[in-house]
Structure formats: C-alpha cells, structure tokens
Structures
1.
Amino acid sequence: KGSHLAEIGHIYLINPTGEVLSSSDSQAVAPPFISPIPIDRFAAMEAQKQSYAWIESHQQTFLLSFVKIPRIGLIVYTLQPEHAVMENFYVLRDTLFIVTGVSLGVAILVSLMISTSLTKPIAAFTETIRHIKQTGYVFHDAQVNQRIRESLTQKIRSKDEIGVMAETFNKMLG
C-alpha cells in the first residue's frame, strides 16, 4: 500500500494549524521536505485563486494541490510526483501525434484520389483533341468519329462538367 502510493502520491487532511489529521501515508505525518505544513503557502495560493503549485525537493518535482473545506476549516492536499501527474499527458501527446499522422496520411491519399479523378478525364479529352489535330481529322468521316466517340466514352464517364464537355464534344462529332 505505502510503496504504491509513494509512486502516485499521498493525500493529507490537515487542520488550520498544520497538524496532519489523516493521511494515505502509513505515517500520519507530512513528508519531511514540506514540514512544517505550508499553511501560509496555502493561504497565499487561496488568495490568488490557485489550487496547486509545483514544488522542488530532494532533486524531484512534486505537484502540491489542495482544497479547503470552508465550514470546518480543514485542508485536503495531495502531493504527487511529477512523473505520476504527467504520465497521462505523455500518453495523450503520443496518441495525438499518431492520430495527426494518420489523419494527414488519409488526407493526402484522398487528395490524390480526387486530383486523379479530375485530371484523368481532362487528359483523355486532351489526348483525343491532340489525336484529331495530328491525324487531320475530317468531320464527315463516320468511322473515325465513331472510334473517337467510343474512346472518349470509355475514358470519361463522369456526370460533372468534364463529362458534359465530353458528351457535347461527342455530339459535335456527329
């Protein structure tokens, strides 16, 4: 019990004079590095509307937090080592890095898929127009018209502006 609480911290119930009334520690006294109990520090923190402070002792940092029970004047305070307090923040930070990385990867993948779906039909349309220009296309040649229409229809199947443009071009071919 005592060693586990030493890892995560202790809870103390003290009276207005600083006497420890109860403790999660097996010894009902405050740790030696904060004896006497810093009643004046609690009063100063309370005046500034603070309920916690970081304190240094024995080359270790602790979080000292407290709450005053108004009607009876008792103070409940906790003393936790920094590593115990910050452990959840480190887990949260690591999780956020992973989620951000995965989200960024998904966003890039979706962007690539969208850009491909936009540029592929335009490239097909451009290729068809280039083919017409290079082959000296004549509008009255029905077989060539049919081949070009089939080529465009296979490559451009969308119903957006590009699809409408391809359909209009097909109609123009006859």
Note: Confidence is low (pLDDT under 50) at residues 1-6.
2.
Amino acid sequence: TARLEAEPLQIDSGMFIFGGLNSSYVPINNSKIFNYSTNSWLSISATNIPTARTQPGLVWTGNKVVLYGGTNASNAVENNGKIYTPSPTDSWTTLPTTSAPQFDSYRTVGVYLNSKAYFFGTALTDAGTSRFVGKYFDLDTNSWSATYTTSTNAPTAFPATSSILSISNSEFLF
C-alpha cells in the first residue's frame, strides 16, 4: 500500500515499516517487513497493533521493535506505545503507561542503547513554551525513567527533528 509519512526502521532481516498516511491523507495502522533476501514484503500480525498514526518513534533492540508516540487521525499526539516481537510470536505487546513520556510534538524520535529504548520529543511548559523532553523504556525492568533533558546543555525544542543517532555508549546526536 502506498503511503506518506510512514516510519521505516532497519531490522536484521530487512526494513520494518509502520503506519503513515494513505492516499486520502488518513493515518493507517498496518505494518510490513521488507525482506532483503527474498525481495518481498511480509505482512505482520494486526492483533493488538497500535492505533493508526504517523511519525512515531521506532527502535530496534536486536529482536524486537519498540514503537512510541506519533500523531493520530484527529491530529492529536499519541502518548502510548507497543512492542512488536517478529519471531517466534509475530505479536504486539502494550507498553506500560505509568511514567510514560507526555509529548506535545507530532514527531517522536527514538534510539536504542544498553537495553533501553530512548524516546525524545517536546512538551509545553507551564509558561506555554516548548521544551525538549526525553524518557527511556527499560526492557529489562519493563518501566519508564526520565533522561537528563532539563540541564542547560539540553537541546532546544525540535518539532521537526527526524532522526537521532547513538554516537557512543552514553551520547546521542540529534
């Protein structure tokens, strides 16, 4: 299915694609995996799949895809996520919502490092200005924790950022 604003993610067997907009500019919630070896698209389970959205943050853990955030059909930010396990279960699991990030940005970006899925976006302050916000999901403890994004060295708000790169065991490049 042709789509706009879908999120691609490199995984071991190929490329994982989630969501995006259909030809009528309505968010969709199906996923596919393009297998480089067979040059073919594989459908994945629709059971418990995340709601239709564009621009979620995606990270590959080496054996799972963690999805968080994005924008739904009402143009509202989705502050929830799921874990997709390709093999052997082809299944989606809901992330806990306790202490999960509360972004106001339409795009969420993510990176995986040291058994943690880091997600970044922006959130409004009490003064009505946007600030940079980040949290990580620890796959070992199945819980959310805050990152240090309130320091004077943190980036300013970035609603249009489209990528993030882990450049060491403890540093990110936006």
Note: The first strand starts at residue 7 and ends at 11.
3.
Amino acid sequence: DYAKITEKNIFDENLKNQYVKVLKEAGLEAYLYGKNGASDEIGVKAPATPKESKDYFRDNAAAIVEKQLSDLIFKIQMAVSAGRRKDQLSTTDLAVGGVVAAINDIIVSYYTDTISLTGLTTVSIGVNKGRKDVFDANSKDIYAYQYSALLDNRTCPTCEALDGKVLDEKAYKK
C-alpha cells in the first residue's frame, strides 16, 4: 500500500532520538579528546566545558538528524511516486516490488553517501572545537600554532603541505 510508505512519520521518534543522542555524544566525546589533548600540549589544566559548547553539540545533532531524515523521506516519496505512475500504466502489480527495491537502494546509498560521513564530520568538529576552547582560554600565553597532520595514505595534499607549519595568532585565525 503506497499510503503507508509515504506517511510523514516513516521514522519513529525513538529512531530519531537515538540518532540525535549518538551524534551528540560522539561530538562531546571528541570535544573532550581535543580539549584534553590541547591542554596536555600546552601544559595547562583542561577548562570546564562551556555551556555553549554542550548546547552546540545537542542543537547541531538535532538539526542534522532532522535534515537528513527529511531528505531521506523525500527521496523515498519520489521513488514511491514514480512507482505509482508505473503501476497506473501497468496492468500488473510489479511496480510495488520495484518500489520496495528502490527504497532499499535509496536507504543503503544514503547511509553510505551521507550518514556514514556525518560521524566523521561530527568527530572532526568535536576535536577541533575542544582544541579551540582550550586555545581561546589560554590565548594570552600562546604566541604561535604548529599544524600537525596525521600523515598516512588518507592524508590530503593540503594537509600534507601544512604539516609542520607554524602560524602566529593572526594567520591561524584566517
């Protein structure tokens, strides 16, 4: 039945809430890792996590999940609409099987292309935000920053070229 496939609440609130929780916690865990690492590097005690940073990860996770699930629902609805048109033109019910297969492909490719990258991005943002909070809290004692890239087979050319560069405060903030 096409109507059930296109219902707005195709993803229940529990799924949405769990996804938000996972993204928020991943961001905060990465934040703590970045904050503690930066504190160790400059030899200071890690500052308390500001409320704004905690709120950022909560709000960002909720916005990402809302956008991603809305996009996924839209893609599914388009596949169902296409299946309906085919079904109306055909005297058989073969289009429903095609729609189910298309929905499966949409979900798999959406996970591969979008959702899996979200975790990587969330962790990267968390680490960098944690480091930034420490550096901002201690900016009067920092005269320069040295870029340090993880050099492996996945390092991009830009990061490889920046590895080891030392930047003053003004150049760093650019």
Note: The mean pLDDT is 84.
